[in-house]
Amino acid sequence: MKSVFFCLVISLFVVITNVQGANPKMANATLKGVVTDVKTGETLAGVKVNIEGTNLVTYTNFDGEFEFTTLPEGTYRVNVQMVSYTETKTEVVATKRSGRKKQVQVLLQPISNLSYYKKSNG
Question: Domains in the chain, start-ordered, CATH in brackets?
Fold first, then answer.
């Protein structure tokens, strides 16, 4: 009886593994980008980047780069925010490409002191 159960479990594992490999949507994709100040052109470190509708969050490194790995292929809405910058939301596509990872550029607009003052007091 144990050997029959063991064979059944192994067979099920093989079937599930083959089905996942046959479906391109199940492939691990990467979403990679860089965040830049729109006025100065400088990359921004420490920017919060999250994928809407999920709990996936990361922060840009010292070169302004961020990366999400092991995502199903598809289109995602990314929310990018940093203190003293206008929050930006953009749609990006995560794909699995052999040897190449497309990098998305996100531009953040600094908040001017005057517009901040009007929002706070108006």
Answer: 28-121 (2.60.40.1120)
